[in-house]
Amino acid sequence: MMKAMTEDRTKLRWDALAEAVKASREARGLRQIDLAERAGISEGSVQNLETGGPRTRIPPSLAKVEPHLGWAPESGLAILRGGEPTPQPVTHEASASLRGGKDKIRDKYSLRIVSELESDDPVVDSAVIELPGAKGVRMTVLVHGQPDATPEEIQQALLAWRKTEQQLHRLPDGSDDDNGQRAANGS
Fold first, then answer.
1. 154, 162 contact by CB (below 8 A)
2. Tens of pLDDT along 36-59?
3. More confident residue, 68 or 99
């Protein structure tokens, strides 16, 4: 028999949730609209999550944003009840799926890239970044952690990556200097 929910949701830590959502979003270099698009919700829903006022129900948008904030499922509920978000579990699914097409990967990419893709190090995050000044050209980044990293170390690595990712999104054109030429030559 299921126990009825008697929790007074107006007394939950809505302010702590609002701060945590905003901090995690900003640490990932996301605007509210970016998070909304990734989660498949409206920008207004993200704004509401970051407002912090008491509510009588848990918004469905909370579960939708959790993975895009690097949180495990139900982390938002944990915050509302006075706890902390649990970092999203690191999986080896990306590495495993790449191993299935090993020959195709080896034929397509350099040995250095294949070695990283086949690594047993946990994947912390990945990104595809459009390069400025080169229409349709993009960079793919795969961020690995240490195999024996604690959840806290993985979270720190993820935050460090988010800062770097923000900088990569703002790369200058570079076509007027030597750096652009070196990049074009692949050196």
1. no
2. 998 899 999 999 999 988 888 889
3. 68
d(CA 131, CA 169): 8
Mean pLDDT value of segment 135-162:
78
* Per-residue three-class SS string for the chain: CCCCCCCCHHHCCHHHHHHHHHHHHHHCCCCHHHHHHHHCCCHHHHHHHCCCCCCCCCCCHHHHHHHHHCECCCHHHHHHCCCCCCECCCCCHHHHHHHHCHHHHHHHCCHHHHHHHCCCCCEEEEEEEECCCCCCCEEEEEEECCCCCCHHHHHHHHHHHHHHHHHHHCCCCCCCCHHHHHHHHCC
As a whole number of angstroms, the distance between CA 7 and CA 96 comes to 42
Per-domain residue ranges of the chain: 9-80, 93-174
CA–CA distance, 123 with 120 (Å, rounded to integer): 9
Quick: pLDDT tens for 5-17: 556 676 789 999 9
For 79, the token pair is 């915050």
What contacts 99, CB < 8 A, 6 or more positions away?
Answer: 118
pTM score, whole prediction = 0.49
Domain 9-80, CATH among 1.20.1510.10, 1.20.1090.10, 1.10.260.40, 3.40.630.10: 1.10.260.40
